[in-house]
Write a structure and sequence with these properties.
Elements lengths: L8 H13 L4 H8 L3 H19 L2 H34 L6
Length: 97
């Protein structure tokens, strides 16, 4: 059974950029880097698809990330309140007042 290879992000970007440059064919790159041509095509596609993110507005990304974090924190607060109320009820703190 052949062990599956793993490659660093640096290596993948190097190969993908070489494919985008177009100085060599995918087949030539595959031979040079000892990779399957489909792998190179896949990395090239991934780089092209996500390249816009690199240049997108950082403030917009930060705002979206913050909104997700706030939503997650509100969910956690709600869960903790439910758990606290349950514990108070079970311990007899609520209703003795």
């Amino acid at each position: 059974m052949k062990k599956r290879s793993t490659y660093s992000g640096k290596f993948k970007s190097k190969v993908a950029l070489a494919a985008i440059e177009g100085r060599k064919t995918i087949a030539e790159l595959a031979s040079e880097f000892s990779l399957h041509p489909n792998q190179i095509s896949q990395w090239k596609s991934q780089l092209l698809a996500r390249s816009e993110e690199i240049f997108s507005d950082k403030r917009k990304r930060d705002k979206e990330d913050n909104a997700q974090l706030i939503d997650e924190l509100y969910k956690q607060i709600g869960q903790l309140k439910v758990e606290l109320d349950w514990l108070k009820k079970k311990s007899g703190i609520i209703g003795k007042g």
